[in-house]
Amino acid sequence: MEFNRQKFIAAIGAFSPETPHNLHIFETVASTxxxxxxxxxxxxPPKTVVIATQQTAGRGQWGRHWQSAxxxxxxxxxxxxxxxxxxxxxxxxxxxxxxxTALRDKGIPVWLKWPNDLVLSGRKLGGILTETRVHQGxxxxxxxxxxxxxxxxxxxxxxxxxxxxEKNPVSPITSLEILAAVTFIGIISGYEYWQQQGIENLLPxxxxxxxxxxxxxxxxxxxxxxxxxxxxxxxxxxICQKGVATPVEISVEPGTISLGYx
Length: 262
What we know:
Helices cover 29% and strands 27% of the residues. The protein is α+β, with helices and mostly antiparallel strands. Strands 1, 2, 3, 4, 5, 6, 7 and 8 form an eight-stranded mixed beta sheet that branches. The radius of gyration is 18 Å and the shape is globular.
């Protein structure tokens, strides 16, 4: 499946005044994030975009392999946050929320699964991987990588968007290029919201789309309920203890428990 550059640029122009500063399109790369970091080392500017229709060594969170079959959207965007390192989680949360919001604006009821999955009809539509470079305690460069299932093969827990829209055409997203444009706009809008409004305003917006709110979980053998997200990106869980009337709230780091799909 070829990716049409002009169709992508036209779709962005139809939805937003934002445009990539540089655009690099590939049929196949090892990783769009890795390719973009190479370009940044060669002084590519912020808002440089790398797009591929296949990755041979795609990565998810915590180094997991990301299945990147032909026909999916694999997009990475360079940003320059210039924020303290302790605010790094805002990149992932804002990107996830921004993309989900942009897709919902186009008629696709996307939800979020903590911390970085896009969910549709209870199955995984896509995921986000953010990577950063730090100088003197600040994030000076960042790459937001996104993988979204369009017309590629998916695992049992996944869903591809094109098949869904062919059965129920409720959205103006009718091509991979339009999906890429909406994704690009979503990352930028979420990022700008986070930069301008801060994490304290982003968190309630993120939680409004979080499928895990109210989900029962087990942490270290104790039963609890998900009640929100901390400013550092940890999961807030209320634990009910025997003999204690008031639940105790704890925080859970990403990657320490599995929330599954429901």
